[in-house]
Design goal:
single chain; 234 residues; Rossmann fold; five-stranded parallel β-sheet; 8 helices; globular; binds zinc ion
Amino acid sequence: MKIQEAYNNFKNLIFTRRCTICGDVCDVRKSLCGACEDGTFRIEGDVCEKCGAPKKACVCRSAPFYMSSCAPFVYEGGPQKAIFLMKYKNDLTITESLAAEMAECVKKRYSGYDFDCVTFVPAHKTDVKRRGYNQAERLAKMVARKLDLPCYELVKKDFHTAPQHSLPAHLRTGNLAGALSYNAEAPCSIEHMRILLCDDLKTTGSTLNESAKILLFKGAAEIRCVTACIKLNK
Ligand SMILES: [Zn+2]
Ligand SMILES: [Zn+2]
C-alpha cells in the first residue's frame, strides 16, 4: 500500500499540471483548466466603464471618486479560488498570472489613457504581519512592472477594521471612515498625477472609493481602478 501511495504521489507530481489561473488540476498538455480556457469567468463584451461589470450586471448607483474600474474576471469558480490561494496560501505563481491578466485588462479597457504611477489599497500592519504580505501591494508591483510604471505606497491604513466582506453593503463605507490616510512618507508629490489603483477584489467598491478620495484630496488628477475580480450582485 505504501509503495502504491508513493507511486501515486510521484505520478501526480510528474503527470499533473495546475491551471495557471485558478490552480485546479488540468490536462498536462495545457496551462489552463477547462473553465478558464473557455473564458467562463472572464469579463468580456459589453462592459460598464464605470463599475467594470458586464452591462447586464452593472451595479452603479452613486458616482464614485474614481473615474472607472475594470477587472478581467468575475468572482466565481476558478478566479474565486485563485483569490483564495493568493490571499491565504501565499501562492506567488497564481498572483503573477492574476497580475498579468490585470495588466492586459488595463491595456485593453484603458487604451486611451496614460498613467503616471500605480498604487494599491492598503492593509493594516497587523494583517500584513499575520499574513506576511499585502496581496494588493504584490499585485500592484507586478502590474506596474508589466506596464513599465513606478509603484508607490500612497495610502495607509491606520486602524484595524472589521473585514469588509463580513459587513452588509450599507455599513462598509462607515466601517472605513477615518481608517485610511495619505502616506506621509510617500516618495513624491502626486499632484496632477493619473493613478492606477489596484486591489484583489472589488465588491461594493467602498475601499477603492475611500482610497481614491484620499488621493484626489492630495491633488491627484484622476484615479482609475483595476482588480483581479469583481463580485457581481445576484
Ligand atoms: Zn482554471
Ligand atoms: Zn456600472
